[in-house]
Amino acid sequence: MNDPFAHVAALSGVSEAVASAREAVDRLLGHRILRRRSAEVSAESALRGARASAELEGAPAPLEDVRAGLVDDPVVQGALRVSASLGSLAPTWRVAPRQALARLHVLAVSGSDAGELGRPRASLEATDPLALGSPPSPSEVADRLSSLSDLLTAPTEAPALVVAAVAEGELLALRPFGSADGLVARAAARLTLIDRGLDPKSLAAPEVGHVELGSAYGEAIRAYVSGTPSGVAQWVRHCAEATALGARDALAVCEAFTRR
Fold first, then answer.
1. Which in 11, 134, 240, 260 has the greatest CB count within 10 A?
2. 8 Å CB contact between 246 and 161
3. Is the pTM higher than 0.70?
4. What distance, in Å, lies between the first and last C-alpha atoms of the chain?
5. Is residue 132 within a helix (H) or strand (E), and if so which, with residue range?
6. C-alpha–C-alpha distance, residues 183 and 190, integer Å
7. CA distance 81 to 12
């Protein structure tokens, strides 16, 4: 098949999970508060998504402490910088994904003592917060990053959520930079949802859903790494559920804004 994303979309249970997530996002996008306060909901989503992404990377922090600027953990700060960049990076993601990934990595680890920021790692050293085991070799990383970039800029019949899930899954599996790869991968998924029109204002935070689903995040990405059709399908279904939960969380934010 010339459309690998469409092949993934046809796997067992994927279309139903994606449709359910789409319904949840559509309910969110139809909320009346967004006619005048969508920027505030987007900002709250960015904050919640960053905090959740940092937790998934091994740096949990109370939301209100993050909101108040009381958390100086470098992972949390990197997650906040990455989250704040999504709107400006969406146009680059559409035409030059590798460039956008490099920028995301720079933002994620800026101020740390990481190696060459934004460049794929040249060794087998990589952090492993999701217990994936030994990372792929640098040569495999280079090949798969190139293939992913080509796929992301090619036409596809697959829904945005499938493309986002595969992009995130590949980046988590590859750990291309050796540090902060989870922050970069989850940001790539959100950029895909923005660019491909599922969530153009970045209102839903799938990261929040991933955290809510607990250990299922690690289990699902390890299934994806196995490379089997059932493993890939499990991962995409998980991402769809996380997106739906993120949309419901944002819907609760909208309701809270209506009471203010």
1. 240
2. no
3. yes
4. 52
5. none
6. 11
7. 37
Question: What digits encode the pLDDT tens for the residues 184-230?
Answer: 999 999 999 999 999 999 999 999 999 999 999 999 999 999 999 99
Residue-wise pLDDT for 110-129, tens only, equals 855 445 688 999 999 999 99
Cα-Cα-Cα-Cα dihedral sign, residues 31, 250, 20, 182: positive
> What is the H or E stretch that residue 2 is in?
none
Question: Pick from 257, 213, 215, 200: which is nearest to 239 by CA?
Answer: 213
**Owner of token pair 């495999």:** 140
Helices (H), 113-228: 138-152, 160-174, 181-195, 206-212, 216-226
- Please give the backbone phi and psi of residue 94, each rounded to the nearest 5 degrees, phi first: -65, -40
For the chain, give the percent of residues with pLDDT over 90.
94
For residue range 64-120, list pLDDT tens digits in order: 999 999 999 999 999 999 999 999 999 999 999 999 999 999 999 985 544 568 899
User: How big is the CA angle at 181 (ends 130 and 85), to the nearest 5 degrees?
Assistant: 130
- The token pair at 161 is 């959520």
**Which one-letter amino acid corresponds to residue 182?**
G
